[in-house]
């Protein structure tokens, strides 16, 4: 590198450091970015700091977020467009929809999830509800046999709609061996116990993959979102202690109502 280029890079680095120090020495008194205000509000709703049913008072939020009224109103309108809050000129702005936060190592619907700051089992009738959409024995397609590493000719297919406080949240589609009496075992939040009662063997682990996909017309009608809306598709393989795949699951989550949380301490 030439001496001139080294000198230029040194001056540029010094200019950048001085600029950053200047910003820190004289910070802006207000958070004027509506996007950043939106992110902070959505985080407060997702984590339960602002639970469903809370009235959002503009004067209080302006102070709490150190922002301007214009930036706050734009952020609130973005949340209203998503259906997270409802704005009424007479009654004010209220949080109308709960958001579900799911730990990444507990992606299946029977695991414990966090809903607006409250820990609850998915089967709690106070928060969650489950509607059976379809359940029948079907021929195992070549791909299902390959994915589940089985030679069985038939599998039991079951599909359910899960709602959170009366609002559709996700569609759950699963495939198990045709001889499994799936309906006799009701989820209670303990994955290992459910697995043992359902399949008669001990649970080992699960493999999950999550991706964003466009919502198909049928699923969009179930989740009450426009066709083509981004949804989170989670595919799960459930293994027993002998390494056999006991269940293949697909879970279609509303992208505007779901967040996934990773606790790196649990992954060490």
TrEMBL record:
Domain HTH gntR-type per the UniProt entry, residue ranges: 31-98
Pfam families: GntR, UTRA
Residue intervals passing through the bilayer: none
SUPFAM superfamilies referenced in this protein's UniProt entry, alphabetically: Chorismate lyase-like, Winged helix' DNA-binding domain
Protein name: GntR-family protein transcriptional regulator
InterPro entries: Bact_HTH_transcr_reg, Chorismate_lyase_/UTRA_dom_sf, Tscrpt_reg_HTH_GntR, UTRA, WH-like_DNA-bd_sf, WH_DNA-bd_sf
Keyword Transmembrane helix: no
Any one GO molecular-function label of the UniProt entry: DNA binding
Organism annotation: Mycolicibacterium tokaiense
GO biological process assignments: negative regulation of DNA-templated transcription
The entry's keywords: DNA-binding, Transcription, Transcription regulation
């Amino acid at each position: 590198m030439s001496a001139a280029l080294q000198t230029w890079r040194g001056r540029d680095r010094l200019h950048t450091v001085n600029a950053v120090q200047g910003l820190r020495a004289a910070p802006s008194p207000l958070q004027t970015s509506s996007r950043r205000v939106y992110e902070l509000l959505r985080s407060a709703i997702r984590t339960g700091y602002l639970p469903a049913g809370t009235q959002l008072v503009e004067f209080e939020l302006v102070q709490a977020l150190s922002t301007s009224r214009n930036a706050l109103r734009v952020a609130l309108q973005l949340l209203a467009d998503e259906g997270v809050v409802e704005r009424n000129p007479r009654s004010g702005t209220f949080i109308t929809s709960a958001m579900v936060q799911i730990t990444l190592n507990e992606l299946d619907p029977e695991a414990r999830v966090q809903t607006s700051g409250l820990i609850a089992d998915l089967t709690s009738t106070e928060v969650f509800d489950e509607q059976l959409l379809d359940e029948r024995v079907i021929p195992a397609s070549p791909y299902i046999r390959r994915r589940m590493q089985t030679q069985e000719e038939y599998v039991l297919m079951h599909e359910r709609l899960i709602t959170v406080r009366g609002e559709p949240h996700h569609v759950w589609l699963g495939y198990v061996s045709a001889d499994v009496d799936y309906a006799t075992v009701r989820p209670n939040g303990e994955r290992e116990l459910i697995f043992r009662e359902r399949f008669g063997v001990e649970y080992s682990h699960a493999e999950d993959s999550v991706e964003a996909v466009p919502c198909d017309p049928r699923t969009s009608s179930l989740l009450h979102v426009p066709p083509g809306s981004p949804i989170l598709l989670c595919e799960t393989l459930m293994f027993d202690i002998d390494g056999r795949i006991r269940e293949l699951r697909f879970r279609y989550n509303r992208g505007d109502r779901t967040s996934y949380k990773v606790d790196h301490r649990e992954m060490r």
